[in-house]
Design brief:
The complex is a heterodimer of chains A (about 525) and B (about 110). Chain A has three domains: about 150 residues, no CATH class; about 110 residues; about 230 residues, no CATH class. Chain A is mainly alpha-helical. In chain A, strands 1-2 form a two-stranded antiparallel ribbon. In chain A, about 75% of the residues lie in helices and about 0% in strands. Chain A is globular, with a radius of gyration of 22 Å. Chain B has a single domain, classed as Helix Hairpins. Chain B has four helices and no strands. In chain B, helix 1 packs antiparallel against helix 2. The chains are: A mainly alpha (about 525), B mainly alpha (about 110). At the A-B interface, helix 6 and helix 7 of A face helix 1, helix 2 and helix 3 of B.
Chain lengths: ~525, ~110
């Protein structure tokens, strides 16, 4: 009883200081970045490992504050309200993603401690310094994306994420990773220019870049101006290139498979979600429903194509890391099914609000469980590759006996990706399925089922190869650390545990989106 | 045709040219330059927006809206950083493989020289 009272007092305190918490979430990684780079050497890693738990605490406090208050928290920088100033805002979506980011980054930081330690006898090594500072850069950028309430701040934050993520791809310096990083950068730049072009059109039409003000202008407009139509299309296209939705996914598999395991985990789990989050903001918080309801089936059709092609391509890969990367292409597709399901449900005459909230929650649960599961999978694949010296799927024979914890973690993460009960992926699919049934869009649930079968197929293919040759386990060229194996297992279990928590725990997600009409 | 319209058309042309170059050229350096052409078009568009906004605020005077100018300055810094990063990656790629394109199927010149 006392502890419950204590917790609610803490949550109340967090609500009272909500705005300051938002500033702290931005300032913490940025300050750590500014310190880690000049101090360098062993300090870079130490600073990151010190900052990550603090960041996790801030993210938990923000989530508690949003949940306790039941309304989004806002903050006006310098006390200037939009349109003059720039606002920060955390609604349920932001709070969920801030928390996911902090959890995944903590796990990645602990996992990377062994891989990116400065070797004894050297004061500073290139790749540890680069990795730790880039990790802070990605984190600062992501928090900026999740909290930004103005299109230009979102642009700058997205660029910070991209510029920090691209060098993560080519940390090893191998030629094929350099080419992958360059291709990724060119796609990201293409997306960025389209985004800022669209921002110019928004500003030119309404004289503001604040999402809330733009939404109000658009809601009042009798007809949507053609410049806004162009801007919406350009911005969505640019963000799709950054999110790697089919058919703009070609940069993703080589980039995500070429990065070091800890880097792949960050790229696949978090970085592609940043641009997806901005698409959510754009489609649910900014554009009027009349426009989004027409465009949503297009996005979802691309998502369906991503699910099907990504799944088939994943099955055809010879290397484990590439298989996991193609599985990301497929899993990104699920996120885009949210648009027709949530918007269709919101338009229902009765009980639409609840169904729409269900669809949105389903999408977010899919996002979070994919983030946890995919980080676990990439790190497991990294451990396997280090232990065997290669990651050819056909050559995995006996690894299930040599590294049982790692393979078990991989399999548990796979359960969530395939949407099998009891996992986060299963809850997500159930919620999306329910929304499809409520809105009569049965074809999307067909896609969900086929995607699940494909994911199960590539998971079984990997496990079949890993468990073959049980009698003759392979000789390992290096034994992974037990701590790294445990982190993989912990992340996979977290993805699984999402399926066991009661559904009411996801109420956080929809705060600020009751019935999908954004509450200003 | 007013000045803002002329500049607006120029901005659209620059964005179109840049987009064509970014997608159609094989050479990475050309792609990077095309990205910069596209960026110039966007910044010009912001200039048009600033001029038009200023005309509305100041009742047809020469004053211009300062917000797009601030945005352009930030955008220039970001575009500069992007160009530097891309060129640095390209230099490393050329050093490592001798290639200046991303087409992995094309025979690399460094390998055929050996």
């Amino acid at each position: 009883m006392d502890s419950a009272l204590f917790l609610s007092t803490l949550a109340a305190a967090a609500t009272a200081h909500g705005g300051d918490l938002l500033v702290l979430a931005l300032a913490l990684p940025s300050l750590a970045l500014l310190l880690a780079f000049p101090l360098g050497g062993r300090w870079a890693g130490r600073i990151v490992l010190l900052t990550l738990p603090l960041g996790l605490a801030v993210a938990i406090a923000i989530a508690a504050a949003v949940l306790h208050g039941g309304v989004p928290i806002g903050y006006h920088l310098g006390g200037w309200a939009p349109p003059l100033g720039v606002a920060l805002r955390a609604d349920g979506l932001s709070a969920t993603l801030l928390l996911t980011t902090a959890v995944v980054l903590c796990a990645v930081g602990l996992y990377a401690r062994a891989d990116f330690a400065v070797p004894a006898g050297v004061a500073e090594a290139r790749s540890p310094l680069a990795f730790w500072t880039l990790l802070l850069g990605v984190w600062a950028g992501l928090n900026g994306v999740f909290l930004g309430q103005d299109l230009f701040s979102l642009y700058v934050a997205l660029e910070l994420v991209s510029f920090s993520a691209v060098p993560l791809v080519c940390l090893s310096g191998r030629p094929e990773t350099l080419a992958a990083a360059l291709r990724y950068l060119l796609f990201a730049l293409f997306g960025a220019v389209l985004f800022v072009l669209a921002a110019a059109l928004f500003y030119g039409t309404y004289g503001t870049l604040d999402i809330g003000l733009l939404a109000r202008h658009l809601a009042d407009a009798p007809t949507i101006p053609p410049a806004i139509l162009a801007a919406a299309a350009l911005m969505t296209l640019g963000l799709l290139a950054k999110t790697a939705l089919f058919p703009l996914h070609v940069w993703l598999p080589p980039a995500h498979a070429g990065a070091p395991p800890a880097g792949s985990a960050v790229l696949s789990a978090l970085v592609v979600k940043a641009s997806f989050f901005v698409i959510l903001r754009l489609w649910f918080d900014l554009l009027p429903a009349g426009l989004t309801r027409q465009g949503a089936p297009v996005l979802a059709a691309l998502g369906a194509a991503a699910i099907l092609f990504g799944g088939v391509w994943a099955l055809r890969q010879a290397r484990l890391k590439l298989l996991v990367a193609y599985s990301t292409v497929a899993q990104i597709g699920y996120l885009f099914l949210v648009f027709p399901l949530a918007l269709g449900a919101a338009a229902l005459p009765a009980g639409g609000g609840a169904a729409a909230a269900g669809a949105l929650t389903g999408g977010l649960v899919q996002l979070v469980s994919h983030a946890l599961a995919k980080a676990a999978m990439f790190m497991a694949a990294g451990l396997i590759a280090v232990a065997l010296g290669h990651d050819r799927i056909r050559g995995l024979g006996g690894i299930g006996r040599a590294l049982p914890l790692t393979v078990f973690g991989f399999a548990l993460a796979g359960l969530s990706l395939a949407g099998l009960p009891p996992s986060g992926g299963y809850v997500a699919k159930t919620l999306l399925d329910a929304a499809a049934a409520a809105t009569g869009q049965w074809w999307w649930s067909l896609v969900l089922q086929v995607g699940g079968v494909l994911a199960a197929a590539y998971l079984v293919w990997v496990l079949f190869n890993a468990l073959r040759g049980w009698r003759r386990p392979p000789t390992l060229i290096a034994r992974p650390r037990r701590s790294q194996e445990l982190i993989v297992l912990a992340l996979a279990l977290a993805a699984l545990a999402l399926g066991l928590v009661p559904l009411s725990a996801f109420d956080l997600v929809t705060i600020g989106h009751t019935g999908l009409t954004a509450v200003p | 045709m007013s000045v803002t319209t002329v500049f607006g058309v120029c901005a659209a042309a620059l964005v179109g040219l840049g987009l064509y170059g970014l997608i159609c050229h094989a050479g990475v350096l050309r792609k990077i330059l095309a990205f910069n052409v596209m960026g110039s078009g966007v910044f010009l568009l912001f200039g048009v927006v600033a001029r038009r906004g200023g005309a509305v605020v100041a009742g047809g005077g020469v004053a211009s809206d300062p917000v797009p100018q601030a945005i352009v300055i930030t955008g220039l810094v970001v575009a500069f950083a992007a160009t530097v990063l891309a060129v640095a990656l390209l230099l490393r790629l050329a050093e490592a493989t001798g290639r200046t394109t991303l087409d992995a199927d094309a025979p690399s010149t460094a390998e055929s020289d050996r």
